[in-house]
Description:
Layout: E1 4-8, H1 12-24, E2 28-32, E3 44-47, E4 50-53, H2 64-73, E5 98-102, E6 105-109, E7 112-115, H3 122-128, H4 130-145, H5 154-162, H6 164-170, H7 172-179, H8 189-194, H9 200-212, E8 230-234, H10 238-251, E9 255-257, E10 260-268, E11 271-279, E12 285-289, E13 292-295, H11 299-305, E14 306-307, H12 312-320, E15 321-333, E16 355-358, E17 367-370, H13 371-374, E18 385-393, H14 404-418, E19 426-443, H15 448-455, E20 461-463, H16 466-469, H17 475-491, H18 497-500
Helix pairs in contact: 1-10, 1-17, 4-5, 5-6, 11-12, 12-15
Amino acid sequence: MEKKAIIIGAGPAGLTAALEFLENTDIKPVIYEMTADIGGIAKTVSYEGNRIDIGSHRFFSKSDKIMEWWRAVYPTQIAPSRDDLMAGVDPEKSDKVFLVRKRLSRIFYLRKFFDYPITLSMNTFLNLGLKRLIKIGASYIGSRLFPIKKERSLEDFFINRFGRELYLTFFKAYTEKVWGVPCTSIPTDWGAQRIKGLSVSGAFLHAIKKIFAKDSSLAQKGTETSLIEQFMYPKLGPGQFWEDVAKIIKRKGGEIHLNQKVIGLGLESGDIRYVKIKDQNNGQAKIKQADYFLSTMPVKDLVSALETDVPRAVKEVAEGLRYRDFMTVGMLLHKLKFKNNTKIKTRNNIIPDHWLYIQESDVRMGRAQMFNNWSPYMIKDQNKIWMGLEYFCNEGDALWNMPDEEIKALAQKELVKMGFIDAGDVLDGVVVRMAKAYPAYFGTYGRLHEIKEYVSGFKNLFLIGRNGMHRYNNMDHSMMTAIVAVENIRTGVVSKDNIWSVNTERQYHEEKNA
């Protein structure tokens, strides 16, 4: 009989696993997704002809396999896009294409624009002023001469690499805005995974190297990920890409069922044998059996869904896992008060940023996206400005429960306060909420290995993806966990260690290989 793999979740990891099964095995994948959307956090929301990328997704990886995987679905552009001012026209013939985008992200602080990550540029020196520069320099030298010997928190991690003054200036407020807890309550794991090789010395060497040589390749293997200068991006946003991957899966014989929430996993003889699924449309439950089970659902929910006597300690860890949620306010604007003061040419001379990290402590906004610059096809009217304004919160708190009109009013008020717009420049807006966007590295995260060891005992259950492993993976790392899991099934590898090693072992790091 045909073997079957049930995959929980239709995000990048789940969809990648399904296509890997179809192309490399004789196992049929069946995906059950609890929402009505494809792509998970990488979905694209459309509102009045304007498209919103939830969280924004650069299609960039140091892994050749992932880059080849993406380009097997979409080719990269070979002609200018419509925001290329030299071209003046849109010559593209297909929506199924990766645009190659020149990356620019900046920090907005002291009502000024700083490079992100911070660079040793004249703009940085002028914005900070001599007094701050001296304090930052002295603090950095002090941290190198007298480092904190035992790093106990993310604060210690930052101070050892950047100095206390630079940490207080550019890291502390924004990090605490994102996570909602003090940096002293976050373990060093987050910095070790997300920042990796980024440092003052690394930024300096990158600046020197740029003077003499420029890496124009898409791979940019000699460049720290935080410093990359270009990336691929689907013409109509990441959701478009993953929706097309879903179509390929169906065409090849896989199944994808939306609005189907997994509420139980049944065991027999020490393995998972079935999932219990609740139809979100009519509330009816059904049982589906399979040979293999791949889960991208939050670890917290997975443990509670296991229909067996889960050890008390494992339950305790699962219940203590925490997440960070956020909302995106899509805001359509007539114009911005800030003009493009860079050398990068843009349509209508708008600021050229993809992301703006809002470091200002007098506003709740955490980050802003310029969708025009991600792709000119994300906005209906090319003469307008389409922004995504992000607010970090916890599901069920006062901000999360705030009515949409009040949230939009808050976003407008803060844009005016920071000097981005006049109140009359707002044309329209929409609010999109995303629960469990970021698995947190606090709560009971330090005991996650207890869950890992317990669920690894189920030979046919594989945890993959960001929430599936409670790890703040980038999209390419989530995909890699799926690829490794399917390869383990194909080759009969029992251990799950190589799946959990993705984004921790050097071979998966977003840094230059030796």
